[in-house]
Amino acid sequence: MDIQPTTHPLSPADDIVIRAARPADCEGIAALGDNPGYRWGTLRLPYRTPEAIRKWIEGTDPANNISLVVEQSGRIIGNGGFERHQGRRAHVGYLGMGLHDGFHGRRIGSRLLRELITIADDWMNLRRIELTVYVDNVPAIALYKRNGFEIEGTHRDFAFRGGAFADAYAMARIKP
Fold it and tell me: What stretches pass through the bilayer (predicted)?
């Protein structure tokens, strides 16, 4: 069955498409990861090669992972997805997402997050979605809270970023 990408019009002039990531997207995803703001909010290291991105996409288990990209006029401006846990935690998915530095404040991240939540709730029957977010990423924290995520704790010295250790919140959403 061929599933068509989901088009999310923000205004008549915007052509935003959210669709599954594919190996051919490796150049665009690598370029996205080199945006300083995007990288600052994630665990990605600088200068990941398109070949490394391709291997990651090709190695993803489609039965337990969702990997989406956001396109505008054929250019990848965001990505996100989640990995379903196994065994006794099969009801849980771990979410990650990011948006190109030049596209914040346009509700694109909200649309991507809602699409991921819909897949988790309506297609994968996930009860719990978990994520980590740096404590200084105020816009992302607000986005997650608006979508039902709650702060469950703080990971001290969670990751090394910009020459120093940074804390992150553990957040989760339980399916209502």
Answer: none
The answer to whether residues 35 and 100 touch, using CB atoms and an 8 Å cutoff, is yes
What's the total number of domains in the chain? 1
CATH of residue 18: 3.40.630.30
What pLDDT, on a 0 to 100 scale, did the predictor assign at position 82? 93
Q: Tokens 């957040």: give the residue.
A: 171
The label of the residue with tokens 């997402």 reads: 97
Within a domain: 166 = no
Domain coverage including residue 31: 6-125
Per-residue pLDDT at 160: 97
* Cβ 93 vs Cβ 102: under 8 Å: no
Which pLDDT band holds residue 7 (cuts at 50, 70, 90)?
A: very low
Structure tokens at 164: 């120093």
At 22-54, the pLDDT tens digits run 999 999 999 999 999 999 999 988 888 889 998
pLDDT band at 11; cut points 50, 70, 90: very low
Task: Round to whole Å and give the CA distance between 69 and 112.
Answer: 9
For the four alpha carbons of 33, 35, 41 and 47, in that order, the dihedral sign comes to positive
Place of tokens 């009860």: 127
